[in-house]
Write a structure and sequence with these properties.
Blueprint: E1 11-12, E2 18-19, H1 27-35, H2 44-57, H3 62-66, H4 69-75, H5 81-84, H6 89-96, H7 105-124, H8 128-134, H9 157-168, H10 176-185
Antiparallel strand pairs: 1-2
């Protein structure tokens, strides 16, 4: 009898490279796992995009968002904070009718509202959204290398603190779990599993 349980440790692909098992679960994930997830993302607009996409992912699978990412970028002016902050009611109706994104009115409203907050943040907080988010990156020396998916947390002390600060400043859809997914995706932490070829490729 074969063991058909999903893999929980790094898995070697047909190309001979070991990866986190989710990175081999669908072709759409392969490139994202190898070249994006866990690599540092810097810059206010780039981080704003990730904050927004993680918010849209809430309650859905990440692959659903990843497959629509270009649609999101087109719909939200490349997630340029200055432009999204100026969206009008006409833009709101355009977005709710756009099949290229997730047409959730609350999340669309949150994205526009978050742009307004991010724009204000750049004026009152030195370094803007980039500096605020990265100030919550934990010391990598104090983190154990995850060997299995069970070793990867969903929430941490740092993500809880980051979510609290973002909410305090007016951001929406940024709970501790969403904040930790953001930290993983943007390279604040390296949660590639032991043995994964992409582990350790983020600058320390």
């Amino acid at each position: 009898m074969t063991d058909e349980r999903p893999a929980r440790t790094a898995v070697t692909g047909e190309d001979g490279l070991a990866r986190c098992p989710w990175g081999l679960s669908t072709p759409d994930y392969l490139g994202y796992h190898d070249t994006e997830w866990g690599r540092p993302v810097r810059g206010d607009d780039a981080l704003f995009e990730r904050v927004c996409l993680e918010a849209f992912q809430s309650g859905l699978s990440w692959i659903t968002i990843l497959r629509r990412r270009e649609g999101f970028r087109k719909a939200f002016s490349g997630f340029r904070i200055a432009e999204v902050a100026e969206f009008t009611d006409t833009d709101r109706e355009r977005l709710i009718a756009d099949p290229g994104i997730i047409r959730n009115r609350a999340k669309i409203e949150a994205t526009i509202a978050n742009a307004v907050v991010a724009r204000a943040l750049a004026e009152e907080y030195e370094g803007g959204l980039d500096a605020l988010i990265w100030s919550y990156a934990p010391d990598p020396a104090g983190r154990a290398v995850p060997r299995t998916l069970d070793d990867v947390p969903a929430v941490t002390e740092e993500s809880t603190a980051l979510a609290k600060e973002l909410k305090r400043r007016g951001f929406r859809f940024v709970g501790p779990t969403t904040a930790y997914a953001l930290m993983q995706a943007c390279g604040l932490v390296d949660d590639h599993l032991a043995g994964c070829h992409a582990r350790g490729q983020r600058p320390v």
